[in-house]
Amino acid sequence: MRNIWQKENVFKAWVFAILALCSLFSSQALASKMASQLQEAIYLFEMKGEVDESIRLLEKISRQGDADDKESAFFYLGKIYDLANNKAQANHFYSRSQAFTKNTSKSYWLASRDAATSFAPVRLLQKTIPLRSPIRKFFEGKKANILFENGHIAKIESGMVIEIASKLNENDHLLHIDSEGMWYQNSTRDSVFYRPHNSPNQETPYNIKDLSQFTAANGYAIAITDKGFYILDRKGTITKGSVDYTSCQIQNDLFISDNFIVNCPDNALHFISANSAAEAFIIAQYDIIQQTFVLKDKIYLISGNELFCYTLQNPKTPLWKAAVGNIETLQAFEKNIVTLEASGKVTLYDQQTGNINASIRVNASNVYQLAQGTLGLFSNEGSVITVDTLLRPLWNFNFAKSPMTAPIVKRRFIYIPYEDKKIYAIDSHYYGQRPLYTSKLAAQAILQAKQDHWENIPPLLDTIIKNEPGNAEAHFLKALNLEKQEAPEKNRQRAWAEAVRLSVGGSPQIASTILSHYSDVIGASFASPLNISPKTMYPQFLGAKKNLYTVDPATEQLICINAENGEQRWSKYIGKIGNAPVIQSDENAIVISTGYQMNVYDMNKDAFNKPLQLPGKAFNFTMTSDYIYASTWNGFLLKISRANNSIVWSRKVYSMPFHVVKLPKFLQLCNLDGALMRLNDDNGSTQEKSSNRVPVNITAMEGIDSTLVLVSNTNKLFLQNTKKKDYSPTQVLMEYPIISMQVFRDQNEDKIIISLSDQSILLYSNIGTPLWKYQGKKSIFSKPFIYDGKAWIDQGNEIIALSIKTGKVVKTFNTPGGAGTPFILNHTLFSASPKRVLYAFPL
Description:
Blueprint: H1 8-30, H2 35-46, H3 51-64, H4 67-83, H5 87-98, H6 104-117, E1 125-130, E2 135-139, E3 145-148, E4 152-157, E5 160-167, E6 173-177, E7 181-185, E8 192-196, E9 204-206, E10 211-217, E11 220-225, E12 228-233, E13 238-240, E14 249-256, E15 259-264, E16 268-273, E17 279-284, E18 289-295, E19 298-303, E20 306-311, E21 320-323, E22 327-333, E23 336-341, E24 345-350, E25 356-361, E26 366-369, E27 375-378, E28 383-387, E29 393-398, E30 408-409, E31 413-418, E32 422-427, H7 437-450, H8 457-467, H9 472-484, H10 489-503, H11 508-522, E33 526-529, E34 541-544, E35 547-552, E36 557-562, E37 568-573, E38 583-585, E39 589-594, E40 597-602, E41 607-608, E42 612-613, E43 618-623, E44 627-632, E45 636-641, E46 646-652, E47 658-663, E48 666-671, E49 675-679, E50 692-693, E51 698-704, E52 707-712, E53 716-721, E54 730-733, E55 738-746, E56 749-756, E57 760-765, E58 770-775, E59 785-787, E60 790-794, E61 798-803, E62 809-814, E63 823-825, E64 828-832, E65 837-842
Antiparallel strand pairs: 1-32, 2-3, 3-4, 4-5, 6-7, 7-8, 8-9, 10-11, 11-12, 12-13, 14-15, 15-16, 16-17, 18-19, 19-20, 20-21, 22-23, 23-24, 24-25, 26-27, 27-28, 28-29, 30-31, 31-32, 33-65, 34-35, 35-36, 36-37, 38-39, 39-40, 40-41, 40-42, 43-44, 44-45, 45-46, 47-48, 48-49, 49-50, 51-52, 52-53, ...
Helix pairs in contact: 1-2, 1-4, 2-3, 3-4, 4-5, 5-6, 7-8, 8-9, 9-10, 10-11
């Protein structure tokens, strides 16, 4: 072995390099069981040049030592062979060292040497583990226990699913499982049992029934029933608590200083001693506590759009707090707390100070730790962008689906469970420093396509998709190949839908290429990614002039989009608007409700007016050219001048929500109970003899010129000619509940178009004469957009236009992957897919 050391100067240079590395990574090595022998091996190599003896001693340590010993032994063996330019052996030992290290800096260094000693592309997806039975419940943690539908319980080890001794009966209900045992209820739910894994025949019963909440930690369990709560230990002892926590929520898997945590309606976390069942202390907030996370002696929580950090030493005053958006996940990462907002913004906060160390925005719906010192940002479409400790991208991959729970990180594999009876095992030591096998194959496939050798492409695509199920380039080439083959339209649409879905959130260059080809295939002006939260599945569009607008409730933003190319112009923060905000617009303004106030965005000024306070939460808005009428849930009506953004008059007209229609000479009102009323527009006073009643509940009301239409919960339309003094409406009965109703003007006649729950669309005259019926399908909101003598509506994978005159389909746009309710602006039809792709079709 010594004959490999020919040049003494090179040897000395590498010795200095090793000394530097020893200094960098020595703290862990010196704490190991065989530390003295490890130091001896290093001394033999560095100072005496006895390479063979050093290798022999390191190999012995790697066989007999503990985990720290093995890590260090493999590390130095890799370095010795690296110095000898034996790349294969060096790579082998570096990889084995990386399997044991818990040092982030060392992991990154080993990854760099792995790339330097091997140029082979990486197969990230190592294996697919099929499951015999679907997963009923997954229990996270080091042991990664799984309960299957057939009652079997297993753990994941060495790339296999290994069943453990315990097994539940079919009708038993598993409450909690950990490395020691499991808690469950019998089929009658009248008792709780604890069964240790090492003694499956030994069960400890607890006479507890009517269980509503349960969790366990550190050998104890807490159970909440309708009669109170109980602390259980594994020996069968039950301690009943004296406080009522039935309206509180146990914070599962959170346990600190021998205390369980419950989140209660008094906006406080209550800490309950597992030893005594007494309340130890509380952490109170002004707003509702939305999320909680415990790390060592610190409690992190989200409340009122702020992230708070408390310590056990001072639970009354936060150590620090920071303003945050709508937080989806909260967890630890390295020395930080990482948050994911609904907008896709990922932020690292220093655990001790709350300072922001890094922040990015990506298409992510979940955040999970992967390899040592890396964070996986997973999207709903299955893509994962993996970032380092400063949120810098390392690699990306696509599994085609989002995982059902957090990945399980082991030495060799990272296991990612999916609902469709399989688990993916990926390389646990990949840091993006070597190319991916699928990326190499995709480049080859693209080259074959450019050379027009399409006959060579299908085998490559099959291999790519097998190794990366969601590879967008492979699915794109598959769709293009089907187009060239003139395959059946259904097959082509399915392929394009998958390619477009998988392009979202991946490489912007790849997404741009796919969407550009896709828009040509479907005849669109463009197909563009829509920068909204994944939680906003079907955005509604508003617009005027050259701009489109949409409201993203999850991120609390008003977004302006260039209608000519689909690019986002800007986004403006509105405020906390909830999941179902009241929104209305015309060609000059957008009105949005936010709690007890209304915000008016003036399109001409490109700015929000000063928010106006309302006497209740908004129920709906009615807009005219000069005024906005706001009705509230508690029965107030306000008339607001658009010229100076001020309230003209306000009065309480009902004690419940109501609808408002502005007719030429008055305001027509109707509350949800069917009580009708007319008001003078000038001052809000009630007109004499204008009160009437419809003997049913009213769900909608619209009016135009002389026609007033009410929708009842009894599947009826009530049609009223407002020029008649007496109230004698025409009634039209429908077969199914009415989903939407619109009154519009067509060829100087009032028309009524409605959609029913069975997806049928019907047109009526203003006196209730049926004109035509069309049987629709798969529409999201079942509300047509009326434009140029046509009713445009989404129908699953297409958008159609129905002639107002005949009810026949006169135009169709294909939208593989689905579409939302259409909106028309500047003679262009816009619609967004559920996967946040904006279509624009020229009319």
